[in-house]
Amino acid sequence: xxxxxxxxxxxxxxxxxxxxxxxxxxxxxxxxxxxxxxxxxxxxxxxxxxxxxxxxxxxxxxxxxxxxxxxxxxxxxxxxxxxxxxxxxxxxxxxxxxxxxxxxxxxxxxxxxxxxxxxxxxxxxxxxxxxxxxxxxxxxxxxxxxxxxxxxxxxxxxxxxxxxxxxxxxxxxxxxxxxxxxxxxxxxxxxxxxxxxxxxxxxxxxxxxxxxxxxxxxxxxxxxxxxxxxxxxxxxxxxxxxxxxxxxxxxxxxxxxxxxxxxxxxxxxxxxxxxxxxxxxxxxxxxxxxxxxxxxxxxxxxxxxxxxxxxxxxxxxxxxxxxxxxxxxxxxxx
Length: 334
Known about the structure:
The chain has 334 residues and is of the alpha+beta class. The protein has helices at residues 19-26, 42-49, 69-72, 75-89, 117-120, 156-159, 164-192, 213-221, 235-243, 250-259, 302-306; strands at 99-102, 107-108, 111-112, 137-138, 143-144, 146-152, 201-204, 230-233, 269-272, 280-284, 290-294, 299-300, 313-323, 329-333.
């Protein structure tokens, strides 16, 4: 039962398994079906075991984790979960990546298929004739994953009496910063490629020309056979799009004013990010343009956190990006 589970530092850092997965193996959630604990995972049952409340105005203080040696082992996982929550709250990476690959390492080799011009044509195949071929091969150059993170700098004495709900705000902000760094990496891969000569085609409006509806239509028309279903833009470009007379739909305007959701020019989801250089609009078919490679879960220096040595505890996340189909993303410079 979860009340008798022995918790120790060695449950962290196991190759290929997270702390929660180790807990789940020792205390499977399926054993609690039909009970009052159904719906809680193994970590949440341990919080209940030690009566640690992490949310709401009645949340406990940070020091509650350190009342026993066993409960102290839970603190790094709490930090990791809240940081992940901060990474996911306003993360737009899922809206621009076609797939996520889990990879244990720092150098990754993706695959690609680039048919020749003849291979892209739709031929009628007669009975008995050979079918057109699409060759899939590994990329020539490796995709390098990057470790992004923040250093948690605080003494235990400074935070021990703080409510966990308040402490979580800071941890979510750390997660938000890490997510932004990963997004900047993704934007750079879209703009410049992943080292395999696959940078997005860059289209310029030309000297003296400004972004108007006609230019947007021309940009949209270049995506055949892909679909421009996502637009990632800098703040100034988003402002220009919002001011275009052709996009001033009354319903869209009311929706933007009421919810903050941006318009969808030509059916494409519009995303604003300061990670995109000024005057830049990135159009992409999100189903084919970008692969995200993730090197495990959010990592925290669990030894330091368990021993209350918070003065310089690193919180990191490893991620990288690979281009899939080069023509599935294009860049418009205004």
